């Protein structure tokens, strides 16, 4: 899929609209689906990071803290789209 153009429309309602131009209707629907799926994944990653941080904050077990800190680090790398160090 190749995006040929992206326009931003500044409406009077205070919202901004993106118009993304692709080759055909099929690609447009696939892109829309992908954007919403990516958004859901990001939300789940954020929630999992928060849960791991709560566990770290409330745990007294050193191994549990270490493991969840590692999970936090890896999930944040995924969220930011970075490679593992």
Q: Evaluate the radius of gyration.
A: 19 Å
Strand order, sheet with most strands: 1-2
Element-by-element helix/strand order: EEHH
**Extended strand count:** 2
Unreliable parts? none
Shape assignment: elongated
**Helix segment count?**
2
Helix content: 55-70%
Largest sheet: 2 strands, antiparallel
Number of domains: 1
The secondary-structure class comes to alpha+beta
Summary?
The protein is an alpha+beta fold and 85 residues long.
Secondary structure elements and pairings:
Blueprint: E1 5-10, E2 16-21, H1 25-58, H2 62-80
Antiparallel strand pairs: 1-2
Helix pairs in contact: 1-2
Structural overview:
The chain has helices at 25-58, 62-80; strands spanning 5-10, 16-21. It is α+β, with helices and mostly antiparallel strands and 85 residues long. The chain has one domain (5-80). Strand 1 and strand 2 form a beta hairpin. The two termini are 30 Å apart. 2% of the residues are buried.
Give keywords.
elongated, 85 residues, 14% strand, alpha+beta, 62% helix, two-stranded antiparallel sheet
